[in-house]
Amino acid sequence: MYKRGGGFALYNYTSPDGAKNRNHYRYFWNLRPMNVPNDDYAPLYALVNAFNLPAGALYRTRTSALAEMSTWIGYLAINHIIGNKDSWGYFWHNNAYLYAPPDRPSELYLCDLDMSMERSSSENLFYNDGDSGPDAIATQIYADPGSAAFTGAT
């Protein structure tokens, strides 16, 4: 279980040698006690790799194998509906719980709802305050044709 703290969640942050920048992920994704070593970011790295693929069949195959897309899309939608500007994918790109078990796809859960009802549900789905712009990963999740089964988009 990871607790999202801030910044762009699933971007591919690397060190000069090309390896994942563990310090960056450790800072923004705090591990919560589970049955895994406290410094195991392999499940998160797998998600980062999948969500940073270009849109298409390979993207859809890898992301749906690693992420329960109904909970991810539901997380994005409900935060927009309740105007929770302090959530990942909407406004400030903070606060989410990511459950990434080794034996099934990961799920996103709500957390820290103290800024709910602060934005209008009629705003753009991925509205941002202008400082950093919309989160490209969240935008691609929603825009992917494979998400239409959950969003009703055609």
Can you describe this structure?
By secondary structure, the chain is of the alpha+beta class. The chain has one domain. It has helices spanning 22-28, 42-51, 57-66, 69-81, 136-143, 148-151, and strands spanning 2-4, 29-31, 86-87, 90-91, 97-99, 107-109. The strands form two sheets. The protein has a four-stranded antiparallel β-sheet with strand order 2-1-5-6. A hairpin with a 2-residue loop joins β3 (86-87) and β4. The mean pLDDT is 76.
- Main sheet: which strands, in order across? 2-1-5-6
Question: Count the strands?
Answer: 6
Over all CA atoms, what is the radius of gyration?
15 Å
**Poorly predicted segments:** none
Largest sheet: 4 strands, antiparallel
Task: State the main characteristics.
single chain, 6 strands, 6 helices, 154 residues, two-stranded antiparallel ribbon, four-stranded antiparallel beta sheet, alpha+beta
Q: How do the strands and helices of this protein lay out in sequence?
A:
Elements: E1 2-4, H1 22-28, E2 29-31, H2 42-51, H3 57-66, H4 69-81, E3 86-87, E4 90-91, E5 97-99, E6 107-109, H5 136-143, H6 148-151
Antiparallel strand pairs: 1-2, 1-5, 3-4, 5-6
Helix pairs in contact: 2-3
